[in-house]
Amino acid sequence: MRTAEIGRGLSLAEWQNRDNRARYDRPDHHTLSLYLEGGEGVVREDGALSGGGPDKLCLLPAGHESRWLIGGRLRMLHLYVAPETLAYQAVSALDVDPRTVSLRELTFAEDPATAMLMRGAVLPLDWAAGADRMALGSACHLLLHALLRRHAGGDARAVTGGLAPAIRRRIAELIEARLAEALSLEVLADEAGLSTFHFAKMFKASFGVPPHRYVTERRIARAKDLLAEGRTSLAGIALACGFASQSHFTRRFAQATGLTPAAWRGAA
Fold first, then answer.
1. Are 159 and 96 in contact (CB under 8 A)?
2. Does the pTM of the predicted model rise above 0.90?
3. How far apart are the first and last CA of the chain?
């Protein structure tokens, strides 16, 4: 019915189906699914499970397999999440080691708070309107945090392994202090006292994403703060956040948020 790219590794779809079959064959993304209408006639065939209906949730982690018989008509809202995007949120928002987090598989689950967030904060928005994109992105990130807090299995704990805590902290501080500069992998690896190969491997274990992705995410976060303040020109923000040019900044910002910097500022 409609789709939207919310940013890198995060997208939405509202769809309907009727008297059909569906199959998930080891997808490379997580799927959070909310029944909006119907669903009472849906059966998960591989587990002989039934019990769907409005406001029931399914959580289908990346790599899972399932087969579904769709009896009657239904309408659903899906949030698709790349594993790397969830890993970054685990580290940046909760300071949880992404290697210890795994999403539980849920079928026809009850979670009124998450259902309310999807119905009340995501569904009513115009996904194509620039004015709603900021609110849409915020709501989807709240959903990511809800997944991590309520539906993550494993032994979630503070980041261990990878870079030593003191080095991890020093690297994060160096990146924040030098976002305006052309940071290279060699500079970061030298700060950690490691080869670029070992640094890149240990960085991803510690931060959930590769170094270049983390630096870009921090630059986008800094740019959002400067846009909200409203005192710096777009060219000045591009320079302050380490982008090669205003056009490069605009392109990267739009890839990450779905909005140009100017549209983001206008919606703030």
1. yes
2. no
3. 28
Those residues with Cβ within 8 angstroms of residue 245's Cβ, 6 or more apart along the chain or in another chain: 238
Tens digit of each residue's pLDDT (9 = 90 or more) over 46-85? 988 999 999 999 999 999 999 999 999 999 999 999 998 9
∠ at Cα 106 (104, 111), nearest 5°? 105
Non-local (6+) Cβ contacts of 236 within 8 A are none
CB 241 within 8 A of CB 180: yes
Pair of tokens at residue 139:
């709501």
Question: What integer best gives the mean pLDDT of the chain?
Answer: 89
Which residue is listed with tokens 């406001």?
55
Structural tokens at position 260: 């140009």
**Residue 258 pLDDT class (50, 70, 90 cuts):** confident
Please give the DSSP secondary-structure letter assigned to residue 216.
H
pLDDT at 134 over 80: no
Q: What is the DSSP letter of 120?
A: I
Tokens 């309310």: give the residue: 116
From 172, 192, 30, 162, select the one nearest 100 (Cα to Cα): 162
The Cβ of residue 48 has, within 10 Å, a number of other Cβ atoms equal to: 7
Beta bridge partners of 49: 44
81-117 pLDDT, tens digit per residue, is 999 899 888 887 777 777 778 899 999 999 999 999 9
Percentages of the chain per state (helix, strand, coil), in multiples of 5: 45, 25, 30
DSSP 3-state of 8? coil
Q: How do residues 195-241 score in pLDDT, each as one tens digit?
A: 888 888 889 888 888 898 899 999 999 999 999 998 999 999 999 99
Q: Residue 81's closest CA among 208, 244, 219?
A: 208
